Amino acid sequence: MKRIAFLVVAAVASVAIAIPAAPAGASSAGAGAAASKNIVGVAAGDPQFSTLVSLIKKAGLVSSLSGKSKLTVFAPTNAAFNKLPKATLKKVGSDKKLLTSILTYHVVKGAVPASRVVTLNGKSVKTLNGKSVKIRVKRGKVYVNKAQVTKTDVKASNGIIHVINQVLIP
Predict the structure, then answer these.
(1) pLDDT band, residue 167 (cuts 50/70/90)
(2) Sheet with strand 141-144: strands edge to edge
(3) What distance in Å separates the CA atoms of residue 133 and residue 141, rounded to the nearest whole number?
(4) Of 40, 59, 57, 51, which Cα lies nearest the Cα of 157?
(5) Please, are residues 160 and 142 in contact by the beta-carbon 8 Å criterion?
């Protein structure tokens, strides 16, 4: 897992995408506090990622996603995981190799801010699991494969989280 490749990274620059970088009313102090935590710490501090954090722990990926290597994570919310059939989620949760493959498919090497997504439009990006995801910008919205990026540039000390509305399946 030390070969943390390019995590699913999306950035939106010259196309003014209607995705807020932070929730309305969020203070810059809150953003600074989040940036002092690593990717796993930031995700663990946000209840919408409790399923993701639980699966990261189950897969044994906490240290890989908490290190000094800069990463970009396309993070599915609990609602995204809830879209999966219960049997699928149970199967994935009980198969560590499959779980690791799926989770590392959400991670790209390097910190890729939304401002760079436009430059990746129509391109494939290699994930840590070795397979690629396709980045698309359509009608002002960014997609990673078929998952829509709903929030960008959640800062962490070792990279960036972009929130997505579906689980990416390799």
Answers:
(1) very high
(2) 107-109, 71-76, 159-164, 147-156, 141-144, 132-138, 124-126
(3) 16
(4) 40
(5) no
Measured CA to CA, the distance from residue 73 to residue 52 in angstroms comes to 11
Residue matched to tokens 């390799």: 170
Angle between the N-to-C axes of helices 96-104 and 86-94, in degrees from 0 to 180, rounded to the nearest 10 = 110
Give CA separation, 161 vs 56, 72, 97, in Å: 14, 6, 23
- Contacts within 8 Å (CB) and 24+ apart, 20-24: 20/151, 21/114, 21/151, 21/152, 21/153, 22/153
pLDDT tens-digit readout, 20-75: 333 333 333 344 555 689 999 999 999 999 999 999 999 999 999 999 999 999 99
Sorted by where each starts, the structural domains of the chain and their CATH numbers stand as 28-164 (2.30.180.10)
- pTM, rounded to two decimals: 0.80
| Dihedral class, residue 60 (left if φ above 0, else alpha if ψ from -120 to 50, else beta) | left
Q: Find where tokens 């391109």 sit.
A: 123
Q: Count of residues for the chain?
A: 170
